[in-house]
Specification:
By secondary structure, the protein is an all-alpha fold. It has one domain. 96% of the residues lie in helices and 0% in strands. The protein is rod-shaped and about 220 Å long.
């Protein structure tokens, strides 16, 4: 009996533990269920309270999109296209200016080459003219020297012939004078 009582006491204690655990679980599940319902109810109230705010935000977004964002985007796009257009025009103008500069430099080089060629041709012509003048002057000088030599030769020949005739005459006179009889000094003085 005592064993039966111990069993009963132990079984009643195990039943009471089991009952306690069930109670705790039921309490916890009810408590969890109550908490969940309370949380859901509060969440629903919050959502219901935020509906005007959501509608207001949606209206503000729509107004912002139509009144500010689209016109601002259009203005920025136009500004960007104008800026890009201006930059492209500036690049085109720079390219045109560079092409004109290159063309001008090419023309300038060609003009300088023409001037140098013309100057060289004039220099060569002047050198040829000078050379012709020198050749002409040299030829005239040589002709004059030749005539002068001929004249000198003629003068020399004339001078030689004069000298020879004069020498002959002087020789004859000397011989006559030497050969003439000597006359006395009284005759020479008395005459």
């Amino acid at each position: 009996m005592l064993a039966l009582q111990v069993r009963t006491a132990s079984s009643s204690s195990s039943v009471s533990q089991h009952d306690q655990q069930g109670f705790v679980q039921r309490f916890n599940s009810q408590f969890d269920h109550q908490k969940m319902e309370e949380t859901l109810r509060q969440l629903g109230e919050l959502l219901l309270g935020s509906v005007p705010t959501i509608i207001l935000l949606a209206v503000l977004y729509i107004l912002y999109t139509f009144l500010v964002h689209r016109p601002l985007t259009a203005v920025l796009a136009e500004r960007r296209s104008l800026t890009q257009g201006a930059m492209e025009k500036a690049r085109a103008d720079i390219a045109t200016a560079e092409a004109r500069t290159a063309d001008y430099e090419q023309r300038l080089r060609e003009a300088r080459q023409k001037i140098f060629k013309k100057q060289e041709a004039q220099r060569q012509q002047a050198n040829q003219t000078r050379a012709q003048a020198v050749d002409h002057a040299r030829a005239r000088a040589q002709e004059q020297v030749k005539h002068a030599r001929v004249g000198i030769e003629e003068d020399k020949t004339q001078a030689m012939s004069k000298l020879q005739s004069e020498a002959g005459r002087l020789a004859t006179e000397i011989v006559r004078t030497v050969m003439r009889p000597m006359t006395s000094p009284s005759q020479v003085g008395g005459q």
